[in-house]
Each structure stands twice: as structure tokens, then as C-alpha cells.
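hey m, so remember when u said the C-alpha cells were messed up on ur end? i reran from scratch. heres the input so u can diff it against urs
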Amino acid sequence: MESKPKDPKKTVPIKNASLERVINRNERIKDNVKQAADDLTSINEILRQGKEVESPVQMIREAIAQNKEVEQKVAVAADDLHQVNTELAKEMAERKMIETELADTRNDLSEAHDDLLESRAKEEESRETALHDALTGLPNRVLFEERLDQGLIQAKRHGWKLAVLFMDIDNFKNINDSHGHDVGDRVLLAVADRLKSAIREEDTVSRWGGDEFVCLLLEVRQEADVVRLAESIVKEVSGACMHDGNVLPVGVSIGVAMHPADGETAAVLFKNADTAMYEAKGKERRVVMFRGIGYDCHENE
């Protein structure tokens, strides 16, 4: 029969048991001293009576011998008590040391917990930095692709539709070339803020690179809903930006690809939305839905 491993927690009460034994021993010594004191009182009473009346010599001798025996017991008890007090002091010192070590351990655990929380906060901050565009603060390609992959999984599982919108700022190169990259960055920031205001809370807009942005629309019910939202984005983004008294016109062209009609994978949806966006560049309404195989695109009517 295998013996059960010792529970490390059961080693803790050993000190308590040792201390209890010392205390019990101290109680026994006290009892012995009390008994010796009672015996001594009895002997003293016999000796006192011996002075008042004539007592046999043998009785006196026995009383004196008994008195010496009691004194010897008291002396032994005193030595034992000294030893007990020494052991008790040692036990208390060890107990105090253990309590100090426990307090230090609690402090170490508290500091380790604080360090862990700080480390997790830094890790989360690093992750947020790694997944967002440095200029606009929008989700970057990595985060957008993660959300699109998750969206496709849910769409296939529940039979939902979703849409990918590929967007490009009109004539942005002219703004950069004429006014410099600092002004171009201000325009990008303005467009990012307008895009965030135009989409639903559950949707995602991302800076794809340069002056290109993409948007993911989840749980789409009707194609017409996507068209209306895309047109509202065009209206929201379009509008002049002011710089040093100069009016900088801003516009956006949008190509749309729907899942599952225009693609089952992220790569196909991006390709078709990008193709539709370039078709939208010359259109008055600036919104084009991708149509069918062969990139047959036309303006939404």
C-alpha cells in the first residue's frame, strides 16, 4: 500500500505543538512547586508544634529530613522552570522570526502582484500600439484583417452578409505635392475623424496605407443598406479643410464588395472592393458596387 505524500501545510503546526509542550511542562512545574509549598507548610507546622510541646526526637528528625527533601524538590523545580523559560523564550523568538518572514513574504507577493499588473498594462499598451496606425490611431492592417477573419467565420456560421469598403481620398497627391506632407497628414487626420463619425459602432474603419482606408460592415441585411451607408460616408468625408487661409477640397471614392456574393475569402473581397473603388474614381456619386465575375463594375444607380 502506497503511503500518501506528506501535506506540506501540516508542517506548520509543529511549532505550535512544541510551544504547547513547553507550556504544559511549565504548568506541571507550577503544580510541583505548589505541592512542595504545601508540604513545607505541613513540616513547618510540625516543627512549630515541636517547640511548644515535647515531641519525640525521631519525629523532629523525620520532619527535618522531609524539609530537606522538599527544599531539594523546590530547587529542582526552580532549575526546571529556568529551563522552561529559556525554551519558551526560544520558541517565542522563532515564532517572531516566522511572523517576520511571513510579513516579508506578503510584501513580496504584493510587490509581485503590482509588478504583474504593471507588466500586463504595458503588454496591453504595446499590443494597442502595434495594432493601430501611428498617425490616425485607427486600427491598422493587422487588426483589421483579424476582425475581418472573425467576421467571415461568424458570417458563414450564421448565414450573415458582410461588406468590405475600399476608400481612397481624391486628389490627395496634389495636396501633398502643393502644401507638403505636414498638411497632408492633417488632411488624413480630418478624414479619419470623419470616417469614425460616419460608421456604426459595431463596424471597423482602418487606415490601409497612404491615403487609402478600408471599412468592415458586419451583419449586413440588405445591399441597399450598404449603399446608403457608403453614400453617407462620401457626404461626411467630403468637405473642405482649411490651411493658412487656403481651402483644400477633400473627397473620397468607395468600392464595395459583399460577402458571399463577391467573395468567400478576405483576399478576394479586398481585390474586388479595390477594383470597384478604381471604377468609382470617375463617377459622380463616388460609390461603386462590385458586380460578378470579370470585375464588371458599374456605378450604383
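this time it looks ok to me. The CA atoms of residues 75 and 173 lie 107 Å apart. if urs says something different then somethings off w ur setup not the seq
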